[in-house]
Write a structure and sequence with these properties.
The chain is α+β, with helices and mostly antiparallel strands. The chain has helices at 9-14, 16-29, 84-92, and strands at 2-6, 37-41, 53-56, 67-70, 73-76. The structure holds FE2/S2 (inorganic) cluster. Residues 6, 8-11, 43-47, 50, 52 line the site of FE2/S2 (inorganic) cluster. FE2/S2 (inorganic) cluster is lined by residues 6, 8-11, 43-47, 50, 52.
Length: 99
């Protein structure tokens, strides 16, 4: 399973670096660093809704205001350092143990 934080120019300006640091802390806190690979990614094509985070290899999430299904999993929109843990706990963590 992979979490890809967009570091394209638009998302970079909206705080990609802080989002990556927040994900590092959350993955450590939930003790799932061995289950999820955290990567930086080029533009994911949703610049107006950044910071954008691609979640691959996970069951597609329910559609919601910040969740968009993709063939590989789903994309989270409008991610910031302040909502990383909430989004992780709601949209990612429950799906880690489904397979
Ligand atoms: S710059 Fe992040 S989606 Fe385009």
């Amino acid at each position: 399973m992979t979490i890809k934080v967009c570091v394209g120019s638009s998302c970079h300006l909206k705080g990609s670096y802080e989002v990556i640091e927040a994900f590092k802390e959350v993955l450590k806190k939930y003790d799932v660093e061995d289950l999820i690979e955290l990567q930086a990614s080029f533009c994911l094509g949703h610049c107006a809704l950044g910071v954008t985070v691609g979640c691959e290899g996970m069951e597609a999430a329910e559609k919601g205001p910040q969740v968009e299904e993709t063939p590989d999993g789903f994309i989270l929109h409008s991610v910031n350092a302040g909502n990383v843990e909430e989004l992780f706990a709601k949209e990612i963590y429950p799906k880690l143990f489904l397979n």
